[in-house]
Structures are given as structure tokens and as C-alpha cells.
Amino acid sequence: MLRVFTRTFNELSNTELYELLKLRSEVFVVEQNCVFLDMDDKDQEALHVLGFDGKRLVAYTRLLAPGHSYPEASIGRVVSHPSARGMNYGREIMQYSIQHILKQYQTDQIVISAQLYLKRFYSELGFVAEGEVYPEDDIPHIKMRYTC
């Protein structure tokens, strides 16, 4: 079972920060061969959702208040450790993230920039695609919205 908790940037321990940046780099930079800077100066204002299996960070999301990436609240940097895929950790951490962001920011709308190949995954969580596919860091993405 995934153990999930949320931290502000200042609440993160050095080890937690290192582990989340390592996981993001392992997937977004190395696995996806994306040579764009992952750290975008939004981490300091974000809520960081960390999912642990035992002592190992296996899933992560970043929650942003309305106005930071979009006029609406948003979830980004959604990632699962490659060795933990197929265990539903991505679904678990997204379900937690959706509920947490709705409560934290008193909103009924969440916008994400989804990698196109994950459109079905996000649709199954209640997100609806909007607009056309666009490149973000040379990877096809689509804007998706969750409304409750």
C-alpha cells in the first residue's frame, strides 16, 4: 500500500527533496531523453505529494495554486518510479492529489498539461481533453480539465 503525504517546499527534508528531484530527473530527463531543465522555479510555491512504498519514493506529484501555471489550480510533474509501474501507484497518488487540491484551494477545477500517451489514464480519473495537441519540451501534450 502506498503511503502518501504532502509537504510544502520548506517542509521537505534534504533527503526528500533529493529523492523527488532524483526521481523526476530519472524519468523526465533520462528515460524520456528530454534535455530541458526540470526545475522551473515553481517548486518553492508548490505542494509536493510524495508516495512511498516502505522507505522508497515511488510516486510523486506537484500541486500548484490557481495563477501559478494556469488560472485554475493544477497538478504537474506526475511521475512513478520505473520499477514500480503496474502497481497502481500513479492512480493512487493522482486520486489523492485531486482530492487534496480541491480541498486545499477550495476549487472545483483542475487543469493539467498531460503527455499525450497518458490521455486515457487521465480520462479514467475524470479529466477531459481540451484543444489541440501541442509540443512541450518536444513531447506531445494536451491540456486536460477536471471539474467536480
Task: Please tell me about this protein's structure.
This protein has a single domain (3-147), classed as 3-Layer(aba) Sandwich (Aminopeptidase), CATH 3.40.630. With 148 residues, the chain is α+β, with helices and mostly antiparallel strands. Strands 1-2-3-4-5-7-6 form a seven-stranded mixed sheet, sandwiched between helices. It has helices spanning 14-31, 89-104, 119-124, and strands at residues 3-8, 47-53, 56-64, 73-80, 109-115, 128-136, 139-147. The protein is 27% helix and 37% strand. The model has no long low-confidence stretch (mean pLDDT 96). It contains three helices and seven strands, in the order E-H-E-E-E-H-E-H-E-E.
Q: Could you state the CATH homologous superfamily?
A: Gcn5-related N-acetyltransferase (GNAT)
Low-confidence runs: none
Q: What is the terminal separation in angstroms?
A: 27 Å
CATH architecture: 3-Layer(aba) Sandwich
Structural key phrases:
148 residues; alpha+beta; 7-stranded mixed beta sheet; 3 helices; globular
Can you describe this structure in just a few lines?
This protein is of the alpha+beta class and 148 residues long. It is built from 3 helices and 7 strands. The chain has a 7-stranded mixed β-sheet, with helices on both faces.
What is the fold's blueprint, element by element?
Elements: E1 3-8, H1 14-31, E2 47-53, E3 56-64, E4 73-80, H2 89-104, E5 109-115, H3 119-124, E6 128-136, E7 139-147
Parallel strand pairs: 4-5
Antiparallel strand pairs: 1-2, 2-3, 3-4, 5-7, 6-7
